[in-house]
Amino acid sequence: MRDWHTHVFTSTYTADVSGVCSVMYELGGMTILHDPSGCNSTYTTHDEPRWYASDSLMYVSGLDEMSAIYGDDSVLIADVIRAAGEMKPKFITLCGASIPHVIAFDYKGVAHLIEKETGIPVLPVPTDGMKSYVSGVGLATREWIRRFACVRAEKRSGNVNLLGITPIDFSTQENVEDLKAFCSTIGREVNTCFAMGDTFENLQNIYKGSVNLAASSAGRIPARFLYGKGKIPCVEGLPVGPWMRTRLQTALSEAEATGKNLRAYEELPDESEVLVIGEEIFAKSLATEINHLPDPKSRESDSSTRKARALWPDVNEGLDEDKLLEEIGKAKIVIADPLFRAACRNKDTTFVELPHEGYSGRIYRKQIPRFLHENFRIGDLLKSGKM
């Protein structure tokens, strides 16, 4: 990609710091966002549906100009030690935005000093505020597993770890429960769900899982770590319709039996009339489901008149707007967050709204469907598109 980007029609995806806060939210720890202030309110206001309904220890350091210029970390360290003494969290997560990155803030060193003084485990997660939430969720999850998970836990066959689960991709707990219900339907017990609707203590048993399900691209970093440490294979995909539900069931069984990492979604065409824009694993799973929609004119049950492809943001660079406009221009149907509508300039193109919390935040939260429910049908959604 180029060294510079011009955004005229598009917004940006949730940043890595919000990803760290999101995945640590329910685990009983204290998260410190090292920043002058601003990134914290963006997270709590736009990216976190749980903020007003449940408690969580989220703090911003309030980094000032002189501390940044002189590299003086003493104020941060003292503030964290004092807050930890009052709140007594199970652990502390230290992440930061762009200014600490520019001044070469030493996450590991400061984490070590705080842990030495408090006796509380401190997880350094070196975010920079310039990558997407996918990176933040993945790095924080890996660091938590590295520090707290019981590596010697004995595997139990037939269960599954759900990775990459945050409101940024799944919005509300209902969608997570639908994913768990799918696992139950195919005879798989959910060992852990990282990290919505689960506990610190239960997540420590993550190595008991016989197979991992990366439900979003944010689950890839911990999946690779678990495969390296515990030889737990991973399957990528989401049950976003009948075909993908069957395919995912088969892939999970195959991965557990062979120990190989698999992708439940298929290779997608470079050219197609349907374009799905969004988080990578979701977009690819949905496009695969569309490619297997039954054609009422065909005698074959697995025959679709439409072909779909996917477009997703790069973790480091986001979406190149020129590439985005080119791909949208070639499509007859675009399935994407409503904020992408401005980039859809052809009046003959059908735009199907499918909101994504990681892109438009809370704006369209109430319009997000239960896309993992057994009754969800993408065919019905395609009929609703208006342009």
From TrEMBL:
It comes from the Bacteria. SUPFAM superfamilies: Helical backbone' metal receptor. Transmembrane segments: none annotated. GO terms for molecular function: oxidoreductase activity. It holds the Pfam family Oxidored_nitro. Residues 30-255 form the Nitrogenase/oxidoreductase component domain. PANTHER family: LIGHT-INDEPENDENT PROTOCHLOROPHYLLIDE REDUCTASE SUBUNIT B. This is Nitrogenase molybdenum-iron protein, alpha and beta chains. It comes from Eubacterium cellulosolvens (strain ATCC 43171 / JCM 9499 / 6).
